[in-house]
Fold these 2 entries.
Entry 1:
Amino acid sequence: MRFSSIPGLAETKQKLVSSVKNNHLAHALLFHGPEGSATLPMALGLASFLYCENPTETDSCGTCAACHRLDKLILPDLNFAFPQIARSKKEVETEKIDDMANWRKFAMEQPYGNIHDFVVAMGMQKKQLNISKDEARKIIQTLSLKSFEGGFKTMMIWGVEHLHPSAANSLLKIIEEPPEKTLFLLITNDPEKLLTTILSRTQKVFVRGFSDQEIAEHLVSEFQLAGEKANQIAILSDGSMREAYRLRDEVKDQQVQLIRQWFLKCAGLKVHEIFPLVTDFDKSDVESQKSLILTGLFVLREILLKRLSVEDLLRTQDEDRVFIEKISKVLITEEDVPTIYQKFNEAYYHLERNINAKFVLTVLLLDVLKIAQNKQRNGR
Ligand SMILES: [Zn+2]
């Protein structure tokens, strides 16, 4: 994660970069901010900047070996600790639980996620998480070893408010006086829950919530969301990127619903019900129209995989699967998918070139209808 992958927050990035340059970086930093803020991304951005072999004035390069390893969170000198549930050794072995692999996946896929997302991602049922005294012992042990690459070692503790008091107490000394070339990056959305003895030993880095503009711009550039929709989501998200992602998924779900209606109505040859859909489509802005066509292409891909019985590759959830099973039986054979796929692609191409949306969609739906009609006539 580079600083540039984090939307906005220029002032925080600049402050961190100048602390590094002026040698003012403390040996224990506490990244704190509201839920859905960039606390974890910012700590990862700093780690990338520090370990990068070829940093620019303001950021890591993103291309050197260290940056690549850091992107996958497998840099040997960057260690992680996070809340866990108590498990016996036997449980870990028999269930083949790889907490570290799960953590990496979570941190890479949901860097703005909260503790609830983490519990779900880690496949935990119970919620009594903590960073135990045993874990604290491991942290101390890890930091007592020499660095792999001869540089400094970093210990990143995510969800540090979940330190068990006994663990916190045993870490006090090492946070106060860490071994040489050791950096602690502590991360929390809830600093009030931390023991004051830990708080007082850290340099605080406050990561504010995102501005509406930062969220909106990110949604447009990252997910090609229409400007108007992005602005609405930004306002509702109230500074939380986690919430913005969730709302964006809802928008995507609505589009999948709409595409499903199209396919079902085409399959049922319900011509009189299809044209009101064209009118609705025509009313939305061009970015939403393009995004809807992309959703259509995604659904077609899933139908094809279903028809080819390559179900391992299907990405859709349960409810969608039922739809895809149904539609791939009645509407489309695998011979038809490439043709329909091409029609959707053409529609996208024409929308991009500002051809009238009503016209583009009418042509597209007539094409799909024709295929559905042929299929039913031939009883395929
Ligand atoms: Zn680099």
Entry 2:
Amino acid sequence: MSQRVVVIGGGLAGIAAAVRLADAGHVPIVLETRRKLGGRATSFPDQRSGRALDNCQHVLMGCCTALLSLYERLGVSDRIEWHERLYWFREDGGCDLLKPGLLPAPLHTAGGFLRMKLLDRAAKSEIRRAMWRMLRGGHRLRSTWRDQTFGDFLQDQRQSPETTRLFWDTIIISACNLPSSEVAAEHGMQVFQEAFLPSRWAGTMGLPTVPLASLYDPAESIIRDAGGELRLGCSVREICTENRKAVGVMTSDEMVRGDAIVSTVPPDRLAKLLPDEIRSTDRRLQGLDQFEFSPILGVHLHFDAEVMDRPHLILAGRNVHWIFNKGFDEEGRHHLHVVISAADDWMELDEETIVNQVMEEIRRALPGAVDQDPVTVRAIKEKRATFRATPEIEPCRPTSAPGSVGLQGGDIDRLYLGGDWCATGWPATMEGAVRSGYIAAAAINGTDSGIEEVPAGRLAGWLGLSSSHR
Ligand SMILES: Cc1cc2nc3c(=O)[nH]c(=O)nc-3n(C[C@H](O)[C@H](O)[C@H](O)COP(=O)(O)OP(=O)(O)OC[C@H]3O[C@@H](n4cnc5c(N)ncnc54)[C@H](O)[C@@H]3O)c2cc1C
């Protein structure tokens, strides 16, 4: 039976839930505080450069199956450019190219890895040992390490601090927005077991070629065609309940009723939408205060002359992590975007200091930038970019659907939860957000979420990464 479902939040989780609900014949009413869709993965019109800029470069990978299916449904898959080659900048000024060769996964990058001058022989042999452990241990290894950090696992695998700094943390900080010493072991392992090891496609990097916000434009007509509504600039103040059942939400103007409510706002926001006495009786809401956040800094720079010819550079072991080459704008200015993850130390710095430090790193890595100053800059601090995916927070991540047993005979009926912080098995990513939205919609439909994993290649599967090992 068709239900009128109020979706709070128009980030990726809210969009995914609304599109799935619309496709299943329900009527989604999406309420979003901001005047645009996309939440933390969006763009804004920048007055200084006169261009639409992303709040930050967002990277996806072939293993992001739910996100890719959403892009497919929105008809925007052709706006993702795929990169098989990764360029690693070395401290001696050289650059290593890590690209797949002819061997089957998990050996597809072995040739490039062995040629990397960034790492000496001892480091490579340490890395091989830990990779082999993750490969052979398969997905079950994650449960063995559930309460520990990825750093604990690396120590167990006798990885030196230098190998961790140059290799593991270069990947983990970018992927999980936390260093390996803090991130839950299961998420650290997930990066390698689901992206880099199982197949060539799973580890291919995707970058949107258009401003992020424009990827979501088609969502509006999908929602409207289902008889639903997209209300931008509309803040929810409270989730309304009657007899322990969610019946609607209160905005600044009115009550919006629904047969079900899907909240996709971050945990601290959700805490404000429910009175304490309701929160304290729903098992899913007990950990909302436990979530902490890790910041990301993105810096856009425009130059009068070309300063970089490679598509990107990974700055291994540095405190500036990636430089993305965003090409030329209509005025012929060259646009670079620099990303600094786990950027706690940068949050108190002013823009001038940030740009000076970033330019120092750019000039070290890009000879073309040595005599160049940027003509426009824009540093964007996202202080609450992602929740900190530590081992301690994992048990606090709630399931979407209300349980029928619990503190007062069951959770709040008809209230569903989504958002990258919910229990999806993924750290805070676009993929995790979309999965949470699909899971919430499936719980309302009473169907399976339909999320598929990228199958491991035959050899990788045989060695330990097959789906039967999950
Ligand atoms: C700087 C940065 C870089 C990132 N880089 C990557 C990356 O490279 N790859 C990757 O996969 N992920 C990346 N992420 C993470 C990714 O952006 C998020 O995990 C994902 O977008 C979260 O989506 P969401 O829908 O769960 O939450 P959100 O995007 O936070 O959406 C929640 C929405 O709810 C709205 N809202 C809040 N309160 C209310 C209310 N009371 N009423 C109505 N609406 C409300 C908000 O305005 C927001 O639009 C990055 C994040 C940041 C910030």
